[in-house]
Amino acid sequence: MKLTILGSGTSQGIPVVACECAVCRSTDTRDKRLRCSAMLEINGQNIVMDAGPDFRYQMLRAGVKDLRAILLTHAHKDHIGGLDDVRAFNWVKQGAVDVYADVRTKEAVYKDYSYAFGENKYPGVPEIDLHEVGEEPFYIDDIEFIPIQVMHYKLPVLGYRTGNFAYITDASAIPETSMRKLAGVEYLVINALRKEEHLSHFTLAQALEVTNVLGVKHAWLTHIGHQMGLASEVSGELPPHVSLAYDTLQVEI
Questions:
Q1: Max intra-chain CA distance, the chain
Q2: Which residues of 65-78 are buried (b: 16+ CB within 10 A; e: fewer)?
Q3: How far apart are CA 35 and CA 149, in angstroms?
Q4: Would the pTM of this model clear 0.90, i.e. be above it?
Q5: Euclidean distance between CA atoms 3 and 248, whole angstroms
Q6: What is the pLDDT of residues 49-100, one digit of tens each?
């Protein structure tokens, strides 16, 4: 299984165009972050977690030729705002792209992309086969995925586990039942917005605590705000089993 970090950033914080901080002016490519997304290549199939507004460029940058499915974590625009651009993969597949989401996110997709689901669709609209997932495991072909419910302040959000890997973003708390579902995970991508407290996202310290409780072999921090600091400096503060994710990072796990 190969993990590709498509985007490790966030819409949170000051827009780059208005910011003069060291991170926004950094020439280190690790500090140039598109909105949060990742891709797993399993048995030759590409499965993407979230399709935010940067989805099209992320697919082009990663050289993705075909797409098996998209797993959505929640309905916020920075995670579903790029679904219209599945059109290119519709052409490649000559059919719809499978998209998996919980009931709240499914309803938001129907609302935001109503033109893709009407009875008399305009030619060329995105073709999406939308599947609702709950708390039970589900399969994409022969690949098992386990939904992991976490809390984004008061909003339930889905993470996903497959095998010894789990992906969690936009979490501020993980219920005990979900921690049990994560038991035995060896590789983890988890959000860490910044060092200071935040209402709806893990801080650096909180994300590190999760990695310690789970005893993972390695974790990558994602959904990183520019308030976190320069990648070159923050990386030196992390324990050996934790790294900052960065756009285009690829790892065999």
A1: 56
A2: eebbbbbbbbbbeb
A3: 21
A4: yes
A5: 10
A6: 999 999 999 999 999 999 999 999 999 999 999 999 999 999 999 999 999 9
Buried b / exposed e over 115-149, threshold 16 CB at 10 Å, is ebeeeeeeeeebbbebeebeeeebebeebebbbbb
Q: Closest Cα partner for 48 from 2, 109, 103, 114?
A: 2
> Within a 13 Å sphere around the CA of 137, how many CA atoms are in the beta-carbon half?
12
Query: Quick one: how far is CA 117 from the chain centroid?
Result: 24
Residue 162 near residue 138, CB atoms below 8 Å: no
How many angstroms separate the CA atoms of 232 and 169, rounded?
22
Structure tokens at 237: 């503060």
d(CA 74, CA 50): 8
Q: What is the DSSP letter of 237?
A: G
Phi, psi of 62 (to 5 degrees): -85, -5
DSSP 130-196: EEE--SS-EEETTEEEEEEEEEETTEEEEEEEETTEEEE-S-SB--HHHHHHTTT--EEEEE--BSS
SS3 4: strand
Closest CA to 191 of 151, 222, 219: 222
Compute the chain's Rg from CA coordinates.
17
